[in-house]
Input
Amino acid sequence: MKTLATMLLLSCCAFGQDKAAIAAAESACGPRNSQIEVTVDASQHSTPAPEAGKALIYVVQEDNIRSRFGVDGKWVGASNGLTYFLVPIDPGEHHLCAMSRLGMSTQVSLHALKAVAGETYYIVPHRVGNGEYDTQFALSEADPDEGKDLVARAKYSTSHPK
Output
């Protein structure tokens, strides 16, 4: 009887998810099955200013995990450990996504950004929580001073689809 009650409870949880709403929310991401290869270049430490008429995002991975980063439905880069990469974007409203595999599940975090030409933004994908089962994944926008410090401590990386 307890087994039946447990199965019923778990099946209700599965049916409670709105797959269309999840897909709409994750539209800032690229396709889930895409793979991105990351190359770390410790000899280079690129820190340019934004191009004329553009904004610039530094994506800085501050902990030792691998994550993919998307803007407006396209994967634009990935990080692997304590690395950073750059994403030039047009001014205006953008929808950011980071995806990482933590434990047995794929975690997604979303962030809206209203970019201004000439501005630099520091976006940090990171773990939230302190345990194996309560760890979540989040995107945070760092203060410019903190962002510059994180970039200074990280290695430059580039990425491309596999």
About this structure: Strands lie at 36-41, 55-60, 66-71, 74-80, 83-89, 92-102, 105-115, 120-128, 136-142, 155-161. Residues 122 and 142 are 5 Å apart (CA to CA). The first strand starts at residue 36 and ends at 41. Residues 27-161 form a domain with the Immunoglobulin-like fold (CATH 2.60.40.2890).
